[in-house]
């Protein structure tokens, strides 16, 4: 059986890491076929818009997309193409694993294995109600949290814990100060947690969470939180395991899911063939989990780990002398 996915090659280093990722996926012989679609600067140049309708139609039809980094032009268009995609497809769950890998520049070469589950559609990060006063002296922003948004993201986190055999969910909030918005999120989280007696639930204020992550990250299993806190915490977690070059992300809704590398398009090294493809490859592993192929997902992760352990054709950011495609070929050889 063939599964068709939408592939967005992206901007900057995007096409290079996507070619490397597809090379590895092809080596796995998974029966995947690709429908290529444009977004970002490439789409703007070719079609005159950042998110062409044909791209939206492709994602809606295939329901699965693998996406390289996109560049949002400064001063025009959407505040963020990624945010726009999340809104249009109601991709309410942002799922960011952070796991220790061998031979990386990390203060925690072992012991980190956690997932940040971030509400993806509301709260301060969504940018709703942004305005600046006529005199330029005051800027305002609406921060809206709903019971529905909070309930479904917390339930997603607890369901994920059950599905993956994890035992603890940490609800991260600032309800001591933000008593209305963060307070509603925490109240809703407690209601949901009560329905999962087999999963330990604890609560932690966001500033303490950041300190605890830096000091003792092994205490965390799954973190669930609101949009802005999750954006910050998930990047902090990437720093624990070697940086954004090892950070994948999934944006999941009921009708579609988009899997990606969470780092930027890195125009300064575009075309040099030295970009690390690991983040997008790990995003592809998340995609395989979503496609109910967990054994293939673990097979891919094991090949990545084996290549890192062997220091085989690694890219310069990992201390090697290889390039984007030689690294991918070394991973593919282990499959």
Automatic annotation (TrEMBL):
<dbReference type="GO" id="GO:0000287">
    <property type="term" value="F:magnesium ion binding"/>
</dbReference>
<protein>
    <submittedName>
        <fullName>Isocitrate dehydrogenase</fullName>
        <ecNumber>1.1.1.41</ecNumber>
    </submittedName>
</protein>
<dbReference type="Pfam" id="PF00180">
    <property type="entry name" value="Iso_dh"/>
</dbReference>
<dbReference type="GO" id="GO:0051287">
    <property type="term" value="F:NAD binding"/>
</dbReference>
<dbReference type="GO" id="GO:0004449">
    <property type="term" value="F:isocitrate dehydrogenase (NAD+) activity"/>
</dbReference>
<dbReference type="InterPro" id="IPR024084">
    <property type="entry name" value="IsoPropMal-DH-like_dom"/>
</dbReference>
<comment type="similarity">
    <text>Belongs to the isocitrate and isopropylmalate dehydrogenases family.</text>
</comment>
<dbReference type="InterPro" id="IPR019818">
    <property type="entry name" value="IsoCit/isopropylmalate_DH_CS"/>
</dbReference>
<keyword id="KW-0560">Oxidoreductase</keyword>
<dbReference type="GO" id="GO:0006102">
    <property type="term" value="P:isocitrate metabolic process"/>
</dbReference>
<feature type="domain" description="Isopropylmalate dehydrogenase-like">
    <location>
        <begin position="4"/>
        <end position="331"/>
    </location>
</feature>
<dbReference type="GO" id="GO:0006099">
    <property type="term" value="P:tricarboxylic acid cycle"/>
</dbReference>
